[in-house]
Design a protein that fits this description.
The chain has about 180 residues and is an alpha/beta fold. The chain has six helices and seven strands. It binds zinc ion.
């Protein structure tokens, strides 16, 4: 009879293998994880920074898929997106962004940072203490996003930066740099 913990480990491992097979196109054979050669190595195209807002999770994936970037971007999620990365009210979040950008560059050789803010953002409302709409809302996002873009370009001159604002309907508009 096997010791109890080994039995438990075995069950978890089998469940894990099934889950991997179902979700990731991977299988565990003889204890070795085997990954299907769906993508060649060499890295990802971009790092996406978005807000955490639950309402837009599917729209974000759909938007990135529509740009043919499926499984070709790293994704950092901070409440407020650009605001989370820049506001001095969230020093821990600021550091998290920069550390993850550094990892994305070193590990996946990304060429671009895509900053995706969204309208009706609770983080903006709380930090700015205002309920902005329309052009004023867009201007508030443009200010934070440009602050972040300038900082990224200063630290990593070879990286391209793209600034985008998503509406609650999932429509995306570009935000001008500078
Ligand atoms: Zn938000």
């Amino acid at each position: 009879m096997q010791p109890k913990f080994e039995c438990h480990t075995h069950v978890v491992s089998r469940r894990h293998a099934l889950k991997m097979t179902l979700l990731g196109g991977r299988a565990i054979i003889g204890g070795l994880a085997v990954t299907a050669p769906a993508r060649a190595g060499g890295g990802a195209e971009a790092l996406l920074l978005s807000c955490m807002d639950y309402r837009l999770v599917d729209d974000i994936v759909r938007y990135m898929d529509g740009r043919q970037l499926t499984n070709n971007y790293d994704h950092v999620v901070l409440a407020g997106a650009a605001l989370g990365a820049t506001s001095d009210k969230f020093p821990g979040w600021n550091a998290t962004f920069w550390e993850h950008l550094d990892v994305a560059i070193k590990l996946h050789h990304i060429k671009k940072v895509i900053v995706l803010d969204h309208r009706d953002c609770g983080a903006y409302r709380i930090v700015l203490d205002k309920n902005l709409t329309g052009d004023e809302e867009k201007a508030a996002h443009a200010e934070q996003m440009n602050t972040l873009a300038t900082a990224i370009t200063k630290k990593y001159p070879d990286l391209a930066v793209e600034l985008l604002l998503m509406g609650l309907d999932g429509a995306v508009e570009p935000i001008a740099m500078g």
